[in-house]
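User: Could you go from structure to sequence for me? I need the amino acid at each position, not a summary. Structure tokens:
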């Protein structure tokens, strides 16, 4: 065995797989601060429709957005599986996103992630940085800097 071959280390990232409508998306675990059950969201006047309002989580006021509405999907259907994922982002502080369901945690090797080329016609591809191949299926990996832009 060649010495160079032994030093090849595959990099991995962990993603939480979430359900939004019929699609599954991956959220990089490094951004996730907390996952909470759906709770009362206080509306805030004069904000875009996709900003649902704010929640009080252990004394901290956190804005909550609907990723479905932001991505042009049908309105959220709130049920027992609905969750709010609290993301910790350098540029925006903490923000909650409403997801239909949290499925599982997956580990993807870098070589199993294909970069996505930007398509100006499809709003949804603007919010995805890659497609992960996992267990015979595909998971769209969300780019939160794009989702939260504006």
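Assistant: Here is the amino acid at each position, in order:
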């Amino acid at each position: 065995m060649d010495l160079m071959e032994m030093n090849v280390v595959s990099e991995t990232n962990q993603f939480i797989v979430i359900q939004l409508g019929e699609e599954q998306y991956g959220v990089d675990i490094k951004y996730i601060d907390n996952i909470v059950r759906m709770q009362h969201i206080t509306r805030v006047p004069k904000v875009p429709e996709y900003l649902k309002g704010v929640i009080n989580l252990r004394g901290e006021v956190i804005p909550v957005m609907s990723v479905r509405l932001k991505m042009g999907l049908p309105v959220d259907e709130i049920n027992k599986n609905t969750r709010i994922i609290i993301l910790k982002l350098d540029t925006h502080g903490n923000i909650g996103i409403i997801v239909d369901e949290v499925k599982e945690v997956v580990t993807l090797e870098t070589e199993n992630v294909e970069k996505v080329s930007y398509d100006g016609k499809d709003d949804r591809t603007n919010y995805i940085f890659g497609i992960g191949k996992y267990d015979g299926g595909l998971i769209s990996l969300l780019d939160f800097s794009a989702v939260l832009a504006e």
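One structural detail worth keeping in mind: The chain has three helices and eleven strands.
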